[in-house]
Amino acid sequence: MNVLDHLGCDKVFYYFEAICDIPHGSFHEKALSDYIVAFAKERGLYCRQDERMNVVIKKPGTAGYENSPALIVQGHIDMVCEKNADTEHDFLTEPLKLYIDGDYIKARGTTLGADNGIAVAYMLALLDADHIEHPPLECVFTVEEEIGMGGATDLDAFDLEGKRFLNMDTEEEGYLMVSCCGGRRMRMYLPVERAAASADKKTFAIRIRGLKGGHSGADIHLQRASANVLMGRLLLELREKISYDLVKVNGGNMDNAICREAEAIVMIDPAKEAEAAALVSELQKMFWAEYKDRESDILMTMEEIEGAAEVLTAEVRDNIIALLQLLPYGVQTMDTNMEGLVESSSNIGIVKTNEDHIFIDNAVRGSVESRKDAICKKIEVLGELCGAKVVGVNDYPGWVYNPDSELLKIFKEAWTETFGKEPNVVAIHAGLECGLFAKKIPGLDLISLGPDMHDVHTPDERLSISSTIRVWDYLKVVLKKLK
């Protein structure tokens, strides 16, 4: 595409664009993994690709750094695939359509994948450079981070010798991340029964669109609306005023993204059509008022579509309404030791009507294990009351802050030298793979950083060019100090 060629930065942007040319959504990382392997082989570097498509590449230290302690640098190669409803894009076959808007790199109508493609670009640029002083590098490229950290969970760390670890999955410049929460995916399967549709009723698609969405960890404190939650409220209000049948309800594509769009297919008596349309309009105004400081473009529509042959039974309809009303969404508790830090949260990321069940995927996060467990148990109890099967999967540990970290001291010193001010040392509510590596490698000293990116996991995702360059320059200063 050559959209970013002129930006320079020691080929960081060159490799970022190359990554964007290769489809690499979660579960579909093989092509990018193979590209990274070919890159290593062309340069004669140690390379290992495991069955999951994780890749480990090693590069010796430069002159004078041959015997320095190795640094593990890590990022994930999968991305969240989200697009606007009016965008035609196949994430399995098509490259992202990049463009520059002022200081930002964006993708037309889709997520950009800067989370975590920029980490991959940084690592490839480091491995390719012959003019940057650095200790031995062990670059780890993991898969399936966005859907439960399966790649990092299954990675065998037998060939990783470093005790210093740099994760590059942080999304705000000026912050050195020293701790993160753990998480678990709670997957619910609500059995469905169907009945023949009434020939006397019309079929309508009720849609909720235009929400900002965002990362279910990093943005959950912003208290943005979830389309799945709003749809639950709409279906309840509709049931209280009008008799209707529910055909199906769907919303969201990723459990770790705040749901931006949802759709319910309903069948209504033609005599009640105007009343139903008026209710949808009334609810839209109500939601505008409720979220006026957080959402600007909530759009709710009701459109007649081709008639359905079957509907869900009233019991199934009522169960899904109950679950969307009662399942925990948003911030659950705040950390009492660190101001502004979310301690626990839950996100109703996916609702999908299948042939024999309705699937609901919840992303639960928590820095206190017992609180995380309590939220998960609440979801289990609610599921049981509605006759649903609930399974907890992809449980990953948090990363505990180490106040005596030597790596943190070096990174802080380099930051002050580079920018003339102290960095912000913080914890994050989002999950990082750091906790998993800390369990695999005893005595690991960890830190995480990255450049400015905004609205990740949404089609408004954007990466700051100037911040990417500053973080790269800072990284070179840090590497020089790791002798």
Structure at a glance:
The protein has 483 residues and is α+β, with helices and mostly antiparallel strands.
Describe the structure.
It is a single chain. The chain is α+β, with helices and mostly antiparallel strands. The chain has helices at 12-20, 30-42, 114-128, 150-154, 227-241, 273-290, 314-326, 369-385, 406-419, 434-440, 465-481; strands at 46-49, 55-59, 71-76, 98-101, 104-107, 137-142, 164-167, 175-180, 182-191, 194-196, 202-209, 214-215, 244-251, 257-258, 262-268, 299-305, 310-312, 330-334, 342-353, 357-366, 389-396, 424-428, 445-448, 453-454, 462-464. It has eleven helices and 25 strands. Strands 1-2-6-3-7-23 form a six-stranded mixed β-sheet, with helices on one face. Strands 18-19-20-9-21 form a five-stranded antiparallel β-sheet. A hairpin with a 7-residue loop joins strand 24 (453-454) and strand 25 (462-464). The two termini are 38 Å apart. The relative contact order is 0.18.
